[in-house]
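Quick check before the chapter quiz. The format below is the same one you will see on the exam, so make sure you can read both the input and the output lines.
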Amino acid sequence: MRQPDASTPLRIGTRGSPLALAQAFQTRDWLRVQHDLPVEAFEIVVIKTTADRVLDKLLKEIGGKGLFTKELEEALLDGRIDLAVHCVKDMAVAEPEGLVSDIFLPREDPRDVLVSHKYRSLEELPLGASVGTSSMRRGAQALFARPDLRIVNFRGNVQSRLSKLEQGLADCTFLALAGLNRLGMSAESWTVIGTEEMLPAIGQGALSVQRRKGDLWVRDLLMPLHDPVCEREMACERSFLGTLEGNCQTPIAGLARLRDDVIHFRGEILRTNGAERMTVEGSCPAAEAAALGARLARDLLSRAGPGFFDWKRPCG
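Here is the expected output.
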């Protein structure tokens, strides 16, 4: 197996947000320990994506969730980097020809956190309160629970969204607990929301490493970091998402958990204005994870009928 060194370092591509950098450095440090390599054997390459540059518009207006990964994938294909660390929830289901994401790192806590300086839950929010989020899922889930709420667009990294909250641009917002944990930020003063109350985004808390298909030496370097539990859970969740043809414009949530070689999955779809929610649940042997996700998605599609996602949510 080829080993990187100071003269030919392993180039790890990442977005430039504090969270993306933390994830890239954590991956680098795990590789250093696993292969007993010096820090000089790695190079962190920061690539700014379209989703990072354009923050004043909803993702659906500029091309969807693939804009979090597009420039990183281009850098992989043209050889500027050797691998890219992605949040699975930011990845499109279909990958560009020539690339593969077959390494999954241990999954963090997938739950959401309600962040507010005044309120501890959606129930505590006053009538007509504002919720800052750019997530169609979170917005629809909040409106399903509280139709009186007003959704305002909050895009940006963790720090910028917290800054917007400090400025009083919304009464509360939501953040992923996984991101807070990876940044070393405490969620004690905020409210961690149970998955029975708010199902997370597909892939929330999971990281995948993408590489060129032909770079088997990169795969071999990464293989000791691979978590088969996360791989099975992602097989189920992403099959569910892919069958629903979901993207950032469709409120879809789901969570797979592997216990004793059995996959347990719960999923839901919502109208974008929160007026209706449909849920599904099932279990299967771990080896059939992808088939379970697809089957449950087809069940939802047959029940929802055409146009389910066409409703518009109120947006301030």
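If your answer matched, good. The two ends are 55 Å apart (CA to CA).
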